[in-house]
Amino acid sequence: MDASGYVTLSRQTGLLNQMDAIANNIANASTKGFKREGTIFAEFIAAGGDGPSLSMGFANTRAVDLQQAPVSATGGVLDFAIEGAGFFLVQTPQGQALTRAGGFTPGADGTLQTLGGNAVLDATGSPIFLPPGAKNIGMAPDGTLSADGAPLAKLGLWAPTDPLTLTHQQDTIFTATAYQPVEGGRILQGHLEDSNVDPVSEVAKMISVQRAYELGQSFLDREDDRTRAVIQTLGR
After folding, report:
1. Which of 56, 136, 181, 213 is the most exposed place for a label (fewest CB within 10 A)?
2. For strand 54-64 and strand 88-92, is the pairing parallel, antiparallel, or unpaired?
3. How many CA atoms lie within 13 A of 227 on its CB side?
4. What backbone phi and psi angles, to 5 degrees, belong to 211?
């Protein structure tokens, strides 16, 4: 395959990755706490010595869009939404992780958990336990959780120490190399943050990417026909 074919294939691979990210965004347009992802395209230029250089595309990295999504009232006492910066810190089987999905529930042992079964951690990085039969669960302006008037723990907000290491793992779970407490965010009880995906915009992007992919495939088909014609001519 000649250089033009490799360049086009690298572009096609990037477009497929972008299409996959867009499809995942659309599928999670109604997922509470979901953050849309975009694909980062990079260009690699191989030096050709005294001859022309070769430029190829590379797009297998995704960037998380942390734009604030609308907040909806649910009335649930264990539903929490973040306005502003920060994530909830949770404990997963693979280690600590971050999430903006604040729909929590009591576990069998009384730990405050996500709907996926991950323990929610407080401002010190420790699990939060709800006493058996707890009623009237409230939250103070500083994030302190209480049950029947007795303080339980302070629900902290966390962020990656290095924002560039933030990676989307699955559903609404994110990981980074390290975490640190963050100021400036506000936690609302009885609310959940919606997805920040705009379905109309994502569908428009999908159509654009699909057309670009079809153009690339058409070019590869023409190059293949040209190569075949040259081989047949020289083989006569």
Report:
1. 136
2. unpaired
3. 11
4. -65, -40
